[in-house]
Amino acid sequence: MRAKILIIGGGVMGTSIALKTAQKCDALDEPVVLLEKGALAAGSSGRSGAILRMHYADQVVAMMARDSLREFAGFEGRTGRSIGFRRTGILLLVGAEQADRMAQLEKNIEMLTSIGIRSSLVDEGEIRDLFPGLHVEEGTVGAWEPDGGFLEPVKTVEAFGALARSYGAVTRVGVGAERLVVEGGRITGAETTRGTIHAESVVVCAGAWSHRLLAEAGVELPLRAVRPENHFIDLPRTYHEAEQDGSARGEGSVDLEDPLEALSEQLSGQLDPESTRAHPVLIDLETGFYARCHPDDHKTRIGRTDYESDDVVDDPDALDEEVSSEMKAWAREQLCHRVAAYQREKDAGSEAALYTLTPDSQAIIGPAPGVQGLFVVSGFSGHGFKLAPAVGEGVAQMIFGEAVSAFDPDFFSPTRFASTDASAFESTGAFGL
Ligand SMILES: Cc1cc2nc3c(=O)[nH]c(=O)nc-3n(C[C@H](O)[C@H](O)[C@H](O)COP(=O)(O)OP(=O)(O)OC[C@H]3O[C@@H](n4cnc5c(N)ncnc54)[C@H](O)[C@@H]3O)c2cc1C
After folding, report:
1. Is 371 helix (H, G, I), strand (E, B) or coil?
2. Going by C-beta distance under 8 Å and a sequence separation of 6 or more, which residues neighbour residue 200?
3. pLDDT digits over 372-393, tens only?
4. Residue 257 pLDDT > 80, yes or no?
5. What's the gap in Å between 45 CA and the centre of ligand 1?
6. Which of 335, 352, 369 is the last residue before a domain boundary?
7. What is the DSSP letter of 16?
8. End-to-end alpha-carbon separation of the chain, Å?
9. Residue 204 in contact with residue 190, Cβ under 8 Å?
10. pLDDT one-digit tens code per residue, 32-41
11. pLDDT-wise least confident of 32-46, 258-272, 306-320
């Protein structure tokens, strides 16, 4: 088989890149082909919290999150495919003692406001109004982002895949790439479990599996897989019982076209706390956890905001699925301390997953050093889902030799770690804040 562009990995990155490149290709001439060894969203994407936050310290990342949120928010209206987008608002908390963090939030908010992202500092009284039932001590400060929310990750990846196919892309599910084929410093395709596929360009977006595939082709990049754990607790009735029809806030279609227009204006009128069946996403930087409701399943996910205690995973195919009792107890304790309504609720399962890290917690996106025609898109740690539309757009621009306007390619350059040693991973920061 011959492909114009061969994409390896059917997570949110692979399907987003397939969609954006297929829109630029002649499917009858040479198609975009995406290979997925398991099922679409079988990797990190399918277990993602898929929180859409725009509050970042790096402007490059905040702009990508903003532009991507516009695409996600308008996706259903444009395509008729539901991705479960819900706009709940996002509340970041810092404790009274965390002066450095508070200063950082203030700085971030100034920058976010300058690029059209609505975000403001809120005191403990305002926090209680925004999140009924939340316990905060005197002096606690929050950063409130009213336009953030979340979506359903598996639905989103499947919808991106289906849309890519509607533009002529081929998605071959259950077909794995076994080896990249490089001849004379140039990629020519990949050997797969169903024979060789020849291609002009190959994109490796195989998440935690990327490192091995690339290393075997002589491309050594600092990518490391770790194992985060999530715990789930039933969502209290007070938050989920106000079920509404499809006009739920944010669940509908919002057409967000002007990238510099404030999101608030475009989304105004949609903020209706009765209809989300969820409370705001909580990111508690004082105690290091986050909580995000899964209203359709009547439960809430709790995870850690840092990667320090996550075990390194050498073989992503042998992921240990058992979540420690310490994590389950810790997660319950954190959430119940903040929101007493959860004390009456039962545990609702737990899950281990994979993050792919880089030494600076930012992704690697761009041409692989030393192999022409090969592109790497990996290392999105715990915050890649929200960036996928911008990543897809920028990678398509790169492959077609266009100026990259979707993000700053230098920021994500695969060559930026040339002088980084392996121990640098130890300084991996929390949540890009
Ligand atoms: C628990 C958890 C919570 C998260 N929460 C958030 C959040 O709230 N917000 C946010 O923005 N981000 C979040 N993230 C991060 C985000 O989900 C990831 O950054 C993103 O999903 C990475 O997508 P990907 O396509 O790069 O990788 P993956 O989703 O891992 O996709 C890689 C795919 O490649 C396939 N593959 C591997 N090797 C091969 C091969 N040789 N041939 C063919 N196919 C292959 C795999 O089967 C897999 O499906 C979270 C992640 C996790 C794990």
Report:
1. coil
2. 3, 4, 5, 30, 373
3. 999 999 999 999 999 999 999 9
4. no
5. 4
6. 352
7. H
8. 45
9. no
10. 999 999 999 9
11. 258-272
**Full residue range of the structural domain in which residue 189 is found:** 2-46+155-223+358-427
Work out which ligand 1 atom sits closest to the CA atom of 65: 11
In this structure, the residue with its CA closest to atom 37 of ligand 1 is 206
Angle, helices 12-22/388-399, rounded to nearest 10 degrees: 50
What's the CATH code of the domain at 186? Answer: 3.50.50.60
Judgement on whether residues 217 and 260 belong to the same structural domain of the protein: no
Q: Which residues form ligand 1's pocket by a CB distance below 6 Å? A: 8-14, 35-38, 42-45, 47-51, 176-177, 205-209, 213, 228, 230, 353-355, 378, 380, 382-386
**Distance in Å, CA 205 to ligand 1 centroid:** 9
Q: Which of 317, 352, 387 is the last residue of a domain?
A: 352
Is residue 59 one of the residues assigned to a domain?
A: no
Q: Is residue 188 part of a domain?
A: yes
Percent helix, strand and coil across the chain, each rounded to 5? 35, 25, 40
Residue 146 has pLDDT above 90, yes or no: yes
Q: Could you give the CA distance from residue 65 to residue 78 in angstroms, rounded to a whole number?
A: 19
Is residue 336 located within the same domain as residue 282? Answer: yes
**Does residue 387 form part of some domain?**
yes
Q: What is the CATH number of the domain that holds 255?
A: 3.30.9.10
d(CA 218, CA 41): 27
Segment 240-244 long-range contacts (CB within 8 Å, at least 24 positions apart): 240/277, 240/278, 240/293, 240/295, 240/298, 241/277, 242/274, 242/275, 242/277, 243/277, 244/272, 244/274, 244/275, 244/277
If asked whether residues 277 and 143 sit together in one domain, one would say yes
Tell me which DSSP letter residue 132 carries: T
Structure tokens at 352: 């281990």
Query: How many other CB atoms sit within 10 Å of the CB of residue 262?
Result: 16
pTM of the shown model: 0.93
The single-letter code of the amino acid at 182 is V
Closest-CA residue to 35 (of 191, 248, 227): 191
Q: pLDDT grade, residue 241 (50/70/90)?
A: low
